[in-house]
Amino acid sequence: MISVLPMAFHPKLQGFQTDxxxxxxxxxxxxxxxxxxxxxxLMGRTSSDRDWVVVGATVxxxxxxxxxxxxxxxxxxxxxxxxxxxxxxxxERKSGHGYKGFTFHADPSVTLEEDLARRDFxxxxxxxxxxxxxxxxxxxxxxxxxxxxxxxxxxxxxDPLRVLRLARFLARFLDFSVAEETxxxxxxxxxxxxxxxxxxxxxxxxxxxxxGEEKPSRMLKLIGKxxxxxxxxxxxxxxxxxxDKPEYDRLNGLRNAEDRWVYSLGFFxxxxxxxxxxxxxxxxxxxxxxxxxxxxxxxFAQQAHFDAAATGQFFNRVDVFRKPARLQQVNRLxxxxxxxxxxxxxxxxAVAEVEQGHYKAFLGDKxxxxxxxxxxxxxxxxxxxxxxNALHSRFF
Length: 396
Fold this sequence. Notes:
A hairpin with a 5-residue loop joins strand 9 (127-128) and strand 10 (134-135). Helix 5 (161-172) runs parallel beside helix 7 (200-211) and helix 17 crosses helix 18. The protein has helices at residues 36-42, 59-65, 112-117, 140-145, 161-172, 180-192, 200-211, 216-225, 229-232, 246-249, 257-266, 271-281, 285-301, 308-317, 324-338, 342-355, 358-368, 376-395; strands at 4-5, 30-34, 51-55, 68-69, 76-78, 85-88, 91-94, 102-105, 127-128, 134-135, 148-149, 177-178. It is built from 18 helices and 12 strands. 48% of the residues lie in helices and 9% in strands. It is an alpha+beta fold. Strands 1-10-9-2-3-6-5-4 form an 8-stranded mixed beta sheet. Among the domains are: 1-146, Beta Polymerase, domain 2 (2-Layer Sandwich), CATH 3.30.460.10; 282-396, no CATH class.
């Protein structure tokens, strides 16, 4: 039986206006807001978008009301004015591997509760009517109050993407924990091999969303606790570990998802491992390049002694002379991890010299005043090292 709570349950649930488009649907059709647009107001949070479920309608009903079909796999429609998505209530049945391995059934006989039953977590399996009445068949409100992420049913194990969604929600809802039985189902999913069937783009997309949440280290720790990294990147021999180290928690203080990616990859993996993972997950090339520079820079920063020759080799390897801004971004992350140091100050100064044209002027002067007949390339190499020597002597 569906549990319906009155609008007064929470002042944030004020229902919604039935506009002229929805009014053209048959009177027997019911429209509900579902998912995060219900969950977030109950938590006192603002929801950025709304998802809708339409119960009792046919495809022809939706088209006649002016909706535009957009769903390739199941009936989803765009509202002609708001452009929000309205999906016909549906059920689904596992028919193959991965998150796409489902067959769907959508017709006017599918009830709201049947549609909500296919969702991942109880806190996402709630709906709200136009009057503000809350429909909560799986006790999502109770789990919200207990700050608990709990699966709706044992069908949770049919969709491997739900492991990543759970990890991402933990990165957003910092005081939530995972129900023991839900963790057990995540373990079953990991052991089933289903995670290996997730396409690379979807793995990256979910992880990237998590990197943009308030505390992405919680996402990484959950995946590590499940020992699922190898399943998510089966072609890579990458040692994912150390998620409980204080250094990993520091990524939460970084300002954007790209910095967090670079920090997570560059400071804990070597360049070959980064390239392997970037290929497996099809990471953006800029992120891969920055992570490789971070890995090289971090390894160099761990050295006990810096001489001018090694510093020159480091600058050449990270290509500071052509791409100074890239090293500057990485240097900021190293300062976040290790604090300020003579090396970080040296890098800051080198970047400034290159960006302001001082290095180029220095190089040009050396070439112009070189001995007649001396190869320009040889002069340039000597000049570059002389510039590095002078810079190095200021900070070491």
